[in-house]
Amino acid sequence: MTTSAREVRQTVVDGVTVEVRRSSRRRRTVSAYRQEGRLVVLVPARLTRAEEGEWVRTMLARVTASEQRQRRSDTELLTRAAHLSRTHLGGRARPSSVRWVSNQESRWGSCTPAEGSIRISDKVRVMPGWVLDYVLLHELAHLIEPGHGPAFWSLLSGYPRLERARGYLQGVSATAGLALTDD
Ligand SMILES: [Zn+2]
C-alpha cells in the first residue's frame, strides 16, 4: 500500500457543484467526470489554486460539450429535420425516419426517397450544429429532388451557411484522407 496526500474541496462554478480532488500521486494529467449531477475534477496536488481554477473551467466546458453531443439522439435528428424542412423547404420533405449510422464509410448522409428514410454518418455527430444541419438539409432535399442538378441546389440556396458547411466537410475529408463526399 502506498499512501498519498489527497485533498477534496467543493466549489460552485457557473451553477455547477464541482468537487476538486487534488492528489499527490497524480503527476500531470487532469481528468473530470460527472457524478450524481456534480462535476468531479482530478488534479495533481502541485497545481496552484489559479491553475486549478482554470482547469476546472476547462474541464466543465469539455464535459458539458461532450454531454451535448451525446444528446444528439435519433429523436433529436428527426426534430431537427422537421424544423429544417419547415424553414427551408416549405415543409415539403417529410422523412419517415432519420437516424445515426456507424456503417457509412463513403457518405456523410444518405437517403431512400421511396421510404422517406434518412441516415446520417456518426462522423457528423461531433461536428458543429450548422454542419449537421447542412447534411440533414441535403438529404431532405433529395426526398424532393433525387439528383444534383440546378433544381436540387436551388432547394438548398436558402441555407445561409451552405458554402461554409460544404467547405468544412471537404476540409475534414481531406485532412482525414477520406474520400467522403456530400453527394
Ligand atoms: Zn446529394
Provide keyphrases for this structure:
183 residues; alpha/beta; 2 domains; 4-stranded mixed sheet; 5 helices; 7 strands; 40% helix; elongated; binds zinc ion; YgjP-like_metallopeptidase; UTP_pyrophosphatase-like
Question: Mind explaining what this structure looks like?
Answer:
By secondary structure, the chain is α/β, with parallel strands linked by helices. The protein has 2 domains: 6-70, no CATH class; 74-175, Zincin-like. 40% of the residues lie in helices and 23% in strands. It is built from 5 helices and 7 strands, in the order E-E-E-E-H-H-E-E-E-H-H-H. The strands form 2 sheets. The protein has a 4-stranded mixed β-sheet with strand order 1-2-4-3, with helices on one face. The chain has a 3-stranded mixed β-sheet with strand order 5-7-6. A hairpin with a 2-residue loop joins strand 3 (31-35) and strand 4. Helix 2 crosses helix 3 (129-144) and helix 3 (129-144) packs across helix 5 (162-175). The termini are far apart. Bound molecules: zinc ion. Pfam families: YgjP-like. It comes from Intrasporangium calvum (strain ATCC 23552 / DSM 43043 / JCM 3097 / NBRC 12989 / NCIMB 10167 / NRRL B-3866 / 7 KIP). This is YgjP-like metallopeptidase domain-containing protein. InterPro entries: UTP_pyrophosphatase-like (IPR053136), YgjP-like_metallopeptidase (IPR002725).
